Amino acid sequence: MINRSNTMLALGLALGLAGAAIPAYAQQPAAQAAPLKPATPAAIGYAKEILVMKNAGAMYAGAVANMVQRVKDSVLQNNLNYQKDLNEVSVVVAQNLSGREKEISEQMAKIYASDFTEQELKDLVTFYKSALGQKLLLQEPKSIQSSMAFMQTWAQKFSEEINGQFRAEMRKRGKEI
């Protein structure tokens, strides 16, 4: 039980640390998102090129299928007797909505084009095509994955240390936890 709670605490801490790295404005609900600045078609084109080089499409490639599955599962909770039908309908719905993940790609490009000038985007494309840029594109996902693994390990060990200090302080008060 204690090991499980330590693991959950460590995971929560790791996720919290990861979340702390994201600016607060990125955590606002979509309804509060700032309006996008107008962008030229060239800027949007550069943004799309950058997103392709960064393989951003991998983030949302299964978005339609995943959303259909989530909605089906939600509907199924209150309609267990329709499981067979809902399974069949989910295939039809997924086919009808196939390709809608392109909306994500388009909006991401517009966001980049709003956040960076056309020249900055052009310079980024040039950078990502350079030897160092290519190395960054290849290495960065590995570096991020290693960083996340380290944070999880660190959080686990740190939570155990904190737990030990709580126990020690409570023992001083004559209370075992």
Order of helices and strands: HHHHHHHH
Backbone CA Rg: 23 Å
Residue windows where pLDDT falls under 50 for at least 5 positions? 1-27
The span between the termini is 13 Å
Q: In which range does the helix fraction lie? A: over 70%
By DSSP (H or I, 4+ residues per run), the number of helices equals 8
Largest sheet: none
Seen as an oligomer or otherwise, the chain set is single chain
Q: What's the total count of β strands?
A: 0
What is the approximate shape? flat
Which structural class best describes the helix and strand composition? Answer: mainly alpha
Q: Kindly estimate the percentage of residues that lie in beta strands according to DSSP.
A: under 5%
What does this molecule look like?
- The structure is a single chain.
- The protein has a domain of 41 residues.
- The longest helix has 42 residues.
- It contains eight helices and no strands.
- By secondary structure, the chain is mainly α.
- It is 76% helix and 0% strand.
